[in-house]
Amino acid sequence: MANLYLHLLDRIWKRHHLEEMLGARIVRYADDFVVLCKRGTERAMGIIKQVLDRLGLSLNETKSRVVNAMKEKFTFLGFDLQMRKNWRTGKSYPHVQPSKKSIRKIKTRITELTRRNMASVPFEAIVKEVNTTLKGWVGYFHYRNCSRVLKQVREHAQLRLRTHLYRRHKIRDRKTGLKRYTDRVLYEKYGLYKVPTTAVWSKAHA
What we know:
Blueprint lengths: L1 H14 L2 H5 L1 E6 L2 E6 L4 H13 L19 E3 L2 E7 L6 E7 L1 H14 L9 H19 L5 H22 L5 H7 L2 H6 L18
Antiparallel strand pairs: 1-2, 3-4, 4-5
Helix pairs in contact: 4-5, 4-6
């Protein structure tokens, strides 16, 4: 429904060459969008409000804000975006990585799937659900500057699955557990999905 309604906004922007006239480019996915402005935001914001008003819609004032993207971070479609300087060259570049909320969400989900009361569920079923969850998340967020975040997610999945095995087999000694359930065992014996930790530099899929 959002695409049907807001397609008019895209058409008006293109038909009237507003990107060139205002120096303002719209990037939209369903009802979430950002407007990248080179020369101020007032005119672009005014036109957007006029179009939305014709559609019987209005901006969510609590979620909408003006940000100086050269100095501040903003979140869009689950990613945090901000300009940073390359420590080697000193040049600025757009740093894009999964937002804190997105990271927290995947970690919480993995924790839920491996909590103590899941011990009655066949272990193969738990691993399958964990893998499905991880693959879906990685498929979306494996983009740009994600290496460190992906490493965090991989380590969290390893820790949670290993902890679950400790409880399932009543292993109280941590050293014994680490020797029995190494990372290699988790991946090769139990088939845990190995989250990649190398960033993918490609065009955004949204």
